[in-house]
What does this fold into?
Amino acid sequence: MIVQLLVSGIAVGIVYGLIAMGMVLIFRAVGIMNFAQGDFLMFGGYFAYTFNQMLGLNIVLSLILASLCMGVIGVIFMRTSYWALRGAQAKAIIVSAMGASIVLKEGARLIWGSIPLSLDKVKEGSVTVAGATIQWQYVAIIGIALLLMLLVYLLLEKTFVGNILQATAQDQYMSSLVGIPVIVSIGLTFFLSAALTGICGGLLAPIFFLSNTMGATAGSKAFAAIVIGGFGSVPGAIIGGLIVGLVEQFGGAYISSTYQLVLIYVVLIAFLMFRPRGLFKEKIQEKA
Amino acid sequence: MNAFANAEKKPKLVLVDVCKNFGGVTAAQDIQLEIYSGEVVGLIGPNGAGKTTLINLITGVYPVSRGKILFDGREITHQPTYKRALEGIGRTFQHPHLLDRCDVLTNGITGSDMAARKRGIQKVDLAKELPRLLACAGLEGINLSDPVSKLAYGQQKLLEVVRVLLSQPQILLLDEPAAGLNNREAEYVSALIQYATEKGIGVLLIEHSMELVMSVCDRITVLNFGTQIATGTPEQIQSNPEVIRAYLGGGDSDAEN
Amino acid sequence: MLQKSKKNPVSAMAMTAFALLLALAPVATSVYTVHVISVAMISYLCVLSVYVLLGLCGQNSFAQAGLWGVGAYLAGNILLKTGGGTLTAFVVAIAGTALLAFVLGFAFFRLKQYYFTFASIGLMTILNGVFMNWEPFSGGAVGMKNIPTFTFFGWQATTEQSKFYIVLVVCIVATVLIGLLFRSSLGRAFMAIRDNEMTADSMGINSLLTKSIAFAISGALCGAAGALHASLSGYLSYQSFTYNQSTIYLIMIMIGGTISPAGALIGTCVITILQEGFRSLQDYMQLIYGVGVILLMIFQPEGILGGGKALYERICERRKKAKAGSR
It folds into this structure.
């Protein structure tokens, strides 16, 4: 039982961590919390469903295609809901992200309907380890998530494009002075963030089912992960995601399944009260 | 004249051996300072000498690392910022910190709101005092219902001083009130300082314009790298060799680091 | 000089005219419309609470629908279980919600910047979870049924019209009180914190206490709205008090504009009219609504009221120029 919960907790948690990472990437780049990130996840899941179930493609290929499509959606989102009002107050940007969230949610309902859907697992069946039955899907999720994290790390730390993204995140004005096209750089960040989150949708769908409202729940858990991990820190977001996943799985099994979400937020508020900077302290200067 | 009066009066604000370290950097080292009611103390020093830090220590924005701050003989070293403000320590900022989405009038009233509440003094008579102060600051022409963002930079800085004066402080800390102002506006600054001293307010003035400092200050203290290198009357300061060295550069080797 | 610069009375006059017009609504329209307007007025109270917190004090909360729920369930419990009257329920709902908000405010506002917003999202989720699961208090997933309608000293409000007037009176009283708050020193302290917390501190404003009071006032408004909701609909379900509902309030105030209570009114009207007026397009309504929100934020981030004000000022300026030119 414990091993099973541990594996499922880590698998779910690492996905939350990936979503949280997507949010942190955007936050570092533009200083705004993206309240539509959860809907990126939902939309990505539906894209994967389209390629996998409707067009009959292989699931891995579907995931890759879905993530590319989401990247494009991310860029559109950035152009309409962020770039067009980057001079406005933060609350205006937050509200426009909420508008975008409604558009995505309703768009998905109109295109794919409101009946919960499912799609193929990456690998069917299960394996028995130390008396515990572990679904292959969980193992696959953990593997894919780790691979994605490695890729993002390499992209950001080891490549020229990564340097440009990081430079823009540090200081937009300065970057424009040294000749970096800021809009392209920020667009790339949104592309990356949305693409990552889109894959998560395809990975979670076989476990939780797809519905157009799944974004809010998943988004709020990712958001808890960010605060727990330490605001603005990428490793913090991943560790925070794991904590949320484990609290959810173990709390659901041992304490109460109805209070699962409440439990996560009790942990969140406890962190806010007693360790407001989270597990990983990261100093980010305030941006307007 | 002031020295005479000081001999019998007690100082309003006293800093005893105040120290502040930021990590390894010493921003204030054993600062001794006394401000009496109705006098103007100048605080000068090169950039980065720790002048603004000192104001932030007096107002409680930063906690002191060591030392004591006394106001009216009572220790206020560990009080939060707002309590010190209620006691009667008013300040302005290097860059004007006005309520930028409110109109000029609201900015003025907000200044007068809080102070009177705690200290039990008569609330300032806005209808009389506000026009007087605005005239003093050369702002009599502005429309009170305009948002402050419509004002020019210099006008904003002057309005900030007006707002603090409306709160009837007992000690007024001015952080470079004349920086970025043209000559005419700088004259309004000294008019406002004069207004304050007439009301018996003790003023601590940080300023780079030597002309202003030398003309309005009763005493001057000079900071360099967080240490007080000289204190005295304007004449004494002008002829102090250590001050000249600090301002002209060169000098002791540890200052270079 | 000081009198002249008193707040522009146009918005107060417009709101009075609107209230009078509303008071005639039961005479002129159907029972259904009256009910819709009553519900909208309750939303208005919640949006007004967002105005106090965001528009005046600059703090962004996502927990308003949760506080609304607290007020509603408190009133429901008083009415159903203790046999208390409408007035008791009303007082308990307002006081209880305000107290809860005040205490939580003290805890949450210790953290600066974004953290209050995050904590409020957490609070919203927790409250919703509690409403859904804590059966003794909220009736759990089944909810609370048969809550008696408004009763004052033996007189019962049975018709939609009489309920409508009760809600209207509460709304007017709340609006007047918030108008007074705007002019008071407390209101100015809120605005000082909104514009610059460091300045507020340096002027002697205890920002922790002041922000908690702002949250408490917004809690009281939500509590009142909750008590009205309980008696008006007679039925409470946890599905009303959701995070989504909180975001709708936020969207309403942003559409109307955060510069005055009139913004809350405009926002509530616009959204209600859109929701009711385009029922035939219902399938696409939400989508259009989302696009509309984005467009509005792009072209008028200060909301309809802010846009109107800017337009008015521009016209005034032009008229002044024209006058100067003709001279």
